[in-house]
Amino acid sequence: MPWGILEDHHLERVPGTIILADQSDVPEEYRNISRDLLKHGTGRYSHIILAPQPTDSPNDPLNWPTWRKDLILMIVGLSAGVVGAYGPMLSPGFVEIAAALGITVNTLSQATAWIILMIGISLFIFNPLAKKIGRRPVYVLSSIIMLSGSIWGALAKDYNSFLGSRIWSGFGMAPYEVLVQCTIADIYYVHQRATRIAVWNMFLLCGISGGALIAGYIIEDQGWQWTLIWCAIIFGILLPLVVLLVPETAYRRNSYEQQLSAQGATGRDAKSVTSEKKDVSSEQEERTKVETVETGAVTEQKESYLRSLRLWDGIYTETPLWKIFLRPMVVFFYPAVLWGFLLYGITLSWIVVFSVVNAVIFTAPPYNFSVSETGLISLSPFILTFIGEMVSGPLNDWVCLYLAKKNHGIYEPEFRLPPIIISFLVGVAGFFGFGATVHFQTHWTGPVLCFGLANMSLALSNASVFGYIIDSHKELSEEAFVAINARNLLTFGLTYFVNDWLARDGVLKVFNVLGGVFVAVNALTIPLWIFGKRLRSFIARNKALYQFMHED
C-alpha cells in the first residue's frame, strides 16, 4: 500500500475497501438481484436504483409523499434545535443568575454539567427503547420531559429546584441528539439523505450557537427565567405537532430477496414481473389513490390517520433488549470508534468549556461586556462553524477521490483522514490562541476570533471522523454514534470543576492544557492511518464479535 498504510494479508477484500473500477450504480446488497427487478426513482433520479428498496405497502415510510417526510424532519429538526440551545443558552447570564440564586458561578456551571451527564446516561436508555418499540413513543416522551422541565426551571425559586429541573430536562434531551439521524435513515433513500442530514445539522448549529446569542438579550431585557419560559412556549407548540404529525417511522421490512420470493420471483428468472413494477417517486406517491396493495400473498390496507396516532404498535426487532443495550459499549472499543470518541468528544468537550467560562471572562475587566454583548460572542462560532460545515464535506470527498485515483482506483476509508491536518491547525490556533489573547488582555476581537476557530475545527473534522467510521463499520453506524456521544460523560467531568480550575491557575494555563490534549488526540490519527486497514480486517475475522453485533 502507498503512503504508509499497511496492507492486510488475511482477507481478499477488507470491509470498507472498495475497488472503484468494479463499482456500478447497483447497491452492494442488491448485486445478486436482477437489475430489472429493482425499483428506480423517476424524473432526474430515474437512473438511480433506490436504496433501500421499498416494499409495495403504502404504510412503508419510504413510500410516503416527500412533503410528509420533510414535514416530519422539520418538526423533529426544530425540536433538536431548541434542545441544542437549551444547555448553553444561559451561559451569557451566568454571573447574574448565580447572584439571583445565591450561589457561585462554579456551582451554577455544575448545573450544566449535570445536564450533560444525564444526556450521556439516557442515550443508553432511549436508544435501545427506540430500536425495540419504535421512535414515536420516545419522541413524545422526550418532548413532554422538555416541556415540563422548562416550566419547572422557570418557576424554580432556589438552586436545588433549578438543578432538579436541569437534570430532568437533560434526561429528555438525548433522543433529539441521536434519533433524528435514525429517522432520516427510516424515511429517506440513500441519495436523499445528505441534504436532509445537512438540514438537521443546520438546526443544531442554529440552536447551539444562536441560542446563547438570543438568550443574552432575553436575560438582559426580560430576566433569565424568560429564557426557560420561551423554551416552554416553543415546546408547548412542538409537542402537539409531534403527537399529531410525526407518526412511527420504524418499519418491519423484509429483505428485498424475501419480498421477491413471496411474489414467486427470483433474482434471475422473473423478468416478467418487471412489467408490473412501477418506479417510485414522490410525485407518484402523492397521486396514488390505491387503498390496498398486493405484496405476495398478503394484502395490506393503508392505515387511517387515526391509527397512525397510536403510540404503540408492537416491537421492531427480535434482538433482546440487553444485547441492544450492550452493543454501543462493545463498539466503543473498535479502534475507529475509540479514535472518533477521543477526537470528536474531546474537541467538543473543550468547546463546551467556552460556554461555561465566557461569562466570567468577558463580563470582567478589561472587557466589561454586558449580558447581551456576551451573548453576541456566539456570532463568531456561528459564522465560522457554518463555513467549516460548507467546506469540510466537499473537501473530504475530493481528497478521497484524488487518493483513490492515485491508488489505482482502490478506495480505503483511511483516505478520509488527511483533512484532519487542516482541522488540527485551526484548532491549535483556537485553543492556544484563546488562552494567550485573554491572558495578555488583547483587543476583544482576539479571543472572540479564537473562540470561533475552535468551533470551526470541530466542524472541519466532522466529515473525517464520521465519514471514516461509517465507511469502516457501515452496519454499526447507529451504535457507533451512541458510543461516541458517551463523550457527555467526559464533558460532565470537565465542566463540573473548570471554573474553579480557571480561578486557581488562570486562563493561560487552563487553555494550554486543553490545547496540549487536543494535539495529543489528533496525533492518534497517525497510527490509525498506518494500521487502520489491518484493524478492520481483524474485527471482520472475529466471528463471535460479528454474530453479537448484528441483528438476530
Summarize the structure.
With 552 residues, this protein is mainly α.
How would you describe what is shown here?
By secondary structure, the protein is an all-alpha fold. It is 66% helix and 2% strand. It contains 21 helices and four strands. The strands form two sheets. Strands 1-4 form a two-stranded antiparallel ribbon. A two-stranded antiparallel ribbon has the order 2-3. A hairpin with a 2-residue loop joins strand 2 and strand 3. The chain is globular. The protein starts with 17 loop residues before the first strand and ends with a helix. About 6% of the residues have low confidence.
Side-by-side strand order of the widest sheet: 1-4
Helix content: 55-70%
Q: How many E strands?
A: 4
Rounded to the nearest angstrom, the distance between the terminal CA atoms is 36 Å
Our estimate of the beta-strand percent is under 5%
| Mean of residue pLDDT values | 86
Low-pLDDT parts are 266-298
Element-by-element helix/strand order: EHHHHHHHHHEEHHHHHEHHHHHHH
Specify the biggest β-sheet: 2 strands, antiparallel
Overall body shape? globular
Structural class: mainly alpha
Number of helix segments? 21
Rg is 25 Å
